[in-house]
Amino acid sequence: MVDLNKRRFLTRKSEIKLNHQLPWLQSPQTLTHDCTQCGQCVTACETNIIVKGDGGFPTVDFNIDECTFCYRCAEACPESLFKTQDESPWDIKATIGEGCLAKQNVECRSCGDFCETMAIGFKLELGKVAQPKLNLDECNGCGACVSACPSNAINVSK
């Protein structure tokens, strides 16, 4: 087992966190306690978004692509880290930050174009370009909007 608090001391970071867990992961503690860091989930991922993260643990990088919820990571894992596929993959959602081009009055709808669930819509406002409106009930946390955003203003987290 790797103690991430000891790693934090050596890296001078105030906090080490696993940015995006893996879909269907039972709990973050399951990952740090039971993951053998074998890399099976990394090679099984169809969109290559699972990468080796802090401490060698697998994590999701939405800057690469989106999660298609294919369940291959869970099927490839030799440990029992994952819930069944019929359960919800995770409870993360997108947030749009102030760096959004539309919030700076520059026309951009890239995130909405890539949002398959149509959780990101745009509302016309007087004197401004259309502003993004996020419907969290529709957002499944796939991260497709993250890599599409030219200003890196979108984050997917709890």
Automatic annotation (TrEMBL):
Interacts with the cytoplasmic NapA precursor. It comes from Vibrio astriarenae. Pfam families: Fer4, Fer4_7. Belongs to the NapF family. GO terms for cellular component: cytoplasm. SUPFAM superfamilies: 4Fe-4S ferredoxins. Keywords: 4Fe-4S, Cytoplasm, Iron, Iron-sulfur, Metal-binding, Repeat. This is Ferredoxin-type protein NapF. [4Fe-4S] cluster 1 binds at C35, C38, C41, C45. [4Fe-4S] cluster 3 binds at C139, C142, C145, C149. InterPro entries: 4Fe4S_Fe-S-bd, 4Fe4S_Fe_S_CS, NapF, PSI_iron-sulfur_center.
